[in-house]
Amino acid sequence: MLSRWMSGSSRNLDREYNCTVRLLDDSEYTCTIQRDAKGQYLFDLLCHHLNLLEKDYFGIRFVDPDKQRHWLEFTKSVVKQMRAQPPFTMCFRVKFYPTDPAALKEEITRYLVFLQIKRDLYHGRLLCKTSDAALLAAYILQAEIGDYDPGKHPEGYSSKFQFFPKHSEKLERKIAEIHKSELSGQTPATSELNFLRKAQTLETYGVDPHPCKDVSGNAAFLAFTPFGFVVLQGNKRVHFIKWNEVTKMKFEGKTFYLYVSQKEEKKIVLTYFAPTPEACKHLWKCGIENQAFYKLEKSSQVRTVSSSNLFFKGSRFRYSGRVAKEVMESSAKIKREPPEIHRAGLVPSRSCPSITHGPRLSSVPRTRRRAVHISIMEGLESLRDSAHSTPVRSASHGDAFVPPGRGGRAESSERVAVIADESYSPADSVLPTPVAEHSLELMLLSRQLNGAPCSIEEEKESEAGTPSAAEAEEPGELRALCLGASSHGGTRAEQVNKFVLSVLRLLLVTVGLLFVLLLLLIVLTESDLDTAFFRDIRQTPEFEQFHYQYFCPLRRWFACKVRAVVSLLIDT
Fold first, then answer.
1. pTM (2 d.p.)
2. Domain boundary among 200, 226, 248
3. Where do transmembrane segments lie in this chain (predicted)?
4. Are 147 and 242 in the same domain?
């Protein structure tokens, strides 16, 4: 029986698991790993496949069965991190955006970062003005199809490509004009380099948004960039805090706290509420990793961070990689022949297609309130692959759009958004930007507008390789996602409850410590244990003084009272 158990255990340890990793060009890398294989092993396999040396900027992302996304931790077993059933499906993405992408040593690294930022632009995470959008799209066009050729590129050729969530004919003409007149002769590498230099100057470069709510119940997106922590509401950046001003990050349940120390010793605490405790923990871990990567001078300065208070155990996390300065120093020492780059070209894609049949705005006169209606359901099949880092549930801004009615799922394909052409930006997508990569489907308004509860549409998750459990409403999470201004009182009550619980915990811990000290005192004074530890304590002058002047009189008084009580009980 023992031999049978040992053979079964050995077979379980030797079991192999199939892994599929989707790369930035939408190709797939498939491999098998052992049960105890660490995340670093899988990541090294990928980097070897890509011939990538500057690999510290990248990571592997996966989604669990609860539709919460995670970064694969390289120091832990892959199988233990994956809660889904095999085969496992993951994505290779940029995890830490380079502070200066144009300064990367190798062209292969710049090309992969280019693919990531191109994906960000397409999915509405990279906000920009129309003029900047046209230039970025023209760089992509030049990198992918080369110089303009009248024989190959007929009138309106730029309309066949989808660079943004949506765009107008006017923008298409501007893109074609720049491509024809300004970029002729640029190689793909040069166009990609110019694209990176331009993207780096935008405020939302490197943003990976986490949907949250502030203390007033307003929707917001939190993000970590190479330069600091940002908060976005609507299409505007409302907070920007440099990394050296962030003193601490912690979370409790769904609540995320950011402690900031600014000039003149001004200290503030920013509080936000995530959709779920898992999303809040993921937000906290991303913040810890980003701050360590961009702020520290060397990896030896990295410390284990805890989300708990002084006496209570909480989540503990430690960043395990190198920091940005070390990565740059290591990159400068690379000396090899530049590896060959196999550019994907213009191929249909699940998540970031160049050739598309997606929505396009018609060109209209620029009037003050002239607007156009576009359908947002076309091309949704191309948005299945996602690189977003938060659960695929998001609440929309109340002032972002007005749906035609309170229809159910059957009406969702007929809903339209109203977008003013005169204030058009490629990032002005259906949801408040930045939007998730596959969350272009309309949500209903919050109860602030129509007095009705929000309806949350679950989105398809092909990244996880698991079917979507789409439901029209999820009451358990609507309370977290659809809080209006009326939830402010509830938030205050929750804070009071948390304070009371903290005080009770402190009292409990204090009583426990006093009880332990009392037991230690009794052992020291009354027991016959003669260990070296107790002997050293008993021989100290302070202990002898305490023993004879305080403890012995207290013991005699207590014994006298006990005898008096016993005699009283006997007499009665």
1. 0.64
2. 200
3. 503-525
4. no
User: Where are the extended beta strands (E) located within 370-526?
Assistant: 371-375, 416-420
Asked whether residue 403 is domain-assigned, the answer is no
Is residue 96 within 8 A of residue 136, CB to CB? The reply is no
**Residue 145 sits in a domain of what CATH number?**
1.20.80.10
pLDDT digits (tens, 9 = 90+) for 56-113: 999 999 999 989 999 999 999 999 999 888 889 999 999 999 999 999 999 999 999 9
Non-local (6+) Cβ contacts of 463 within 8 A are: 22, 61, 62, 63, 89, 90, 91, 384, 385, 386
Number of structural domains in the chain: 4
Task: Report which of residues 436 and 48 the model is more confident about.
Answer: 48
Where in the sequence is the domain holding 39, given as residue range(s)?
16-94
The terminus-to-terminus CA distance of the chain in angstroms comes to 68
For 314, counting Cβ atoms within 10 Å of its Cβ (0-12 exposed, 13-18 middle, 19+ buried), the class is middle
Q: How far apart are CA 401 and CA 395, in angstroms?
A: 12
User: Are 180 and 223 members of one domain?
Assistant: no
Which pairing describes strands 316-317 and 305-306: parallel, antiparallel, or unpaired? antiparallel
What angle, rounded to 10 degrees, do the helices at 169-181 and 130-145 form?
Answer: 60
